Amino acid sequence: MDAACKAQIIASEKNLLEAMKTSNVELLDELLHDDLLCNSPTGETVTKAVDLNNYRSGNIHLHTVESSDQILSAIGDTVVVAVTVEIKGNYLGQELDGKFRYLRVWKQFEKGWQVIAGSVIGLSTNL
């Protein structure tokens, strides 16, 4: 992966996490592809529309969203990102305070990089 591509993805990831933390639905709308599918820690598959509605309605309110251990792998015009994210806040009525491992697939489109797929699992603090 060339340095320019890597810098764009790192910036996109940073913007995505900031949008999650601030419930910036407009920025999330730009960064998430309309046909996004994402698996949640409960095994539920969530669409972009569902995700945006949860942020819009206030059902997701996060005050800490900090990443670490980021790994990037480029395959053509697609980049896979594995990253650990510490999250504190409220998600659909449940308090969150832990670390989660995300796998996101970014694809380059005319209007920029967008997440086309993702998955997240909770990390046990006992490991």
In short:
With 127 residues, this protein is of the alpha+beta class.
Layout of secondary structure:
Blueprint: H1 3-22, H2 25-31, E1 32-39, E2 45-47, H3 48-57, E3 60-75, E4 78-91, E5 94-109, E6 112-122
Parallel strand pairs: 1-6
Antiparallel strand pairs: 1-2, 3-4, 4-5, 5-6
Please tell me about this protein's structure.
- The protein has 127 residues and is of the alpha+beta class.
- It has a single domain (3-122), classed as Nuclear Transport Factor 2, Chain: A (Roll).
- 29% of the residues lie in helices and 54% in strands.
- It is built from three helices and six strands.
- The protein has helices spanning 3-22, 25-31, 48-57, and strands at residues 32-39, 45-47, 60-75, 78-91, 94-109, 112-122.
- A six-stranded mixed sheet has the order 2-1-6-5-4-3.
- The longest helix has 20 residues, at 3-22.
- The radius of gyration is 14 Å and the shape is globular.
Can you tag this structure with a few keywords?
alpha+beta, Nuclear Transport Factor 2, Chain: A, six-stranded mixed sheet
Query: Helix proportion of residues, in percent?
Result: 25-40%
CATH architecture: Roll
CATH C-level class is: Alpha Beta
Order of helices and strands: HHEEHEEEE
